[in-house]
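Recall that a protein's primary structure is simply its ordered list of amino acids. Everything else, from secondary elements to tertiary packing, is in principle encoded there. The following example makes that idea concrete.
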Amino acid sequence: MSKKDIYGINKWGKGFFEISKKGNLALKNPFEKKNDSVELIRVIRELNQKYSPPYIIRIIDYLEYMIYQIHQNFDKSIKEIGYKNKYRGVFPVKVNQQAQVVEKITSYGKKLDFGLEVGSKPELLIALTQKLSKNSLIVCNGIKDEEFITLCLLSSKLGIKIVIVLESIRELNLIVKISKKLKILPLLGLRIKLTNTISGKWSQSSGDRSAFGLPVEKITEVISILKKNQLLECLILQHSHLGSQVPDIIEIRKFTQEACRFFCEITKEGAPLKYLDLGGGLGIDYTGQNKSISHSINYSLEEYCFNIVETVKLQLDKEKIDHPVIITESGRACVAASSILIFNILDTTIFDSKKCPEITQKDHIYLSYMKQILNYLEKERLQECFNDLNYYRDELRILFRNNQINLKDMAKIEKTYLFILNKMKSLLLETKEISDDVLNTINNLADIYHGNFSVFQSLPDVWAIDQLHPIAPIHKLSEIPKRRAVLNDITCDSDGMISKFVLNDGISKTLPVHEIKNDEDYYLGVFFVGAYQETLGDLHNLFGDTNVASIKLFKNSKFKIIHKQVGDKVSEVLSYVEYSPSKLINNFIKIVNHKQNSDILKLTEKNKLLKTFKDSLQGYTYFEN
């Protein structure tokens, strides 16, 4: 039994995930940490009775826990520092628009006056139908047309606190016009483009070149227009966005400090600002490295909250300005840990030869030289052996292209090459002094495990921006994995591959995996996929949304599946790209009837073919058991 946590689960798991005594990946209840955890494989086996993988498993306890953790840490900092106002969170709907997620967040956050941030008309319609508290805010960002603004203003008469955040002078003029027409005073916010830039993958969303917000030279113009139209009293919120997944706490401090300077200056102009919205930024430590690097952060949630509250208090106390309500839009931190993508391995491509072929006098002399490498193969001569091996193999390939070696001979050569190369793999574990050439060749010959999922649909950030998500088997964790692999998805695309993995000792180009026995299901989990991944996916090869199950954790290792959402049917994804399922059936019937009349197709074959076609339209877009 291996006691080593190869996949770094205890580092990135952060109290949510652990390895059970049986060697299965298990879900911990963060509210009841003394309770036994729930093995994820049990959830999968229950779902398999009626459905097929891949699945998104959503743990609603983790949503609730993170909302409370963010609030509790801000409240703790406010009390310790002596801040004279409160914290109020809002969830950016764009991070995960799924109904089950938004409804649970608003339900859990109601007693905390938790609100929502929207950036489009559809998201506004979602927000307006949620059961928010009377003190919760709906913060409206993004570009707004007349209908959007009208909806905000009229809805405010229902007692809903909707803040329309100004993004441009054009937008302000439109709001002024509609407000006068409806005779409804708006609640306004001002989005400011700060100069501080952040490191990491989302640096372009900050600084002078960021796409959103008003630059310094436009702020005084906005204030002038508001004064002219007697609307300055409506300006109650200042908003800025640092960027998603900020890795360094110092950047958060500098950003908050700059935002406070604008807050003070705008307040001096007579605006009754009550809210300071510092946007997103709170990151997730996807790798467990606790460093200021991509995919990680160098601070805790407690440190994040303390730094913000302390900075705001210090800056505003200098100017003797009342402390505002602090708002953050920590969408990623709220939902990332709550969702896991689970998929099974359908097949494997193994670059291996377990037995070295026998060499005869008929074989080419270079093949015998290649096999003789085994006589001096040792870790001190690994580079030399590697060079010799590739030289002989390359020369033999040239002979094959020149018709001097036949196909059977070439097959024997490749088997010998793979056998010797895999002997080298075992020596690699014993030495760190190895050239990049050897390491790259070994990595390029890693196994390919073909998974029942689509990178483009379920993990779009992995494909688009090389986002790292922890990936690990959800069982067999007490067994030593004897193979290394990269993961290939079910799509017909070379980009549908994952070749960068989070391990306990760092980032690796291959994933340690277990050998798969015949008639055995082997499941992998991709973690922290609750933020963005569920709504950014595309229909590459027309693979649709996966099956989803929301679960709740209880005592004594018990759980309950409280909601199931069946994944897209083939007919649904076809309709997304403007195909009519009924028309497809009718067209296919005509084609089949034509062939039957030609005596090509028997009546029994025709009936089975049509039934299979119709059943396929109602089937899951992924591989079905």
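The longest helix spans residues 60-81. The chain has a mean pLDDT of 92.
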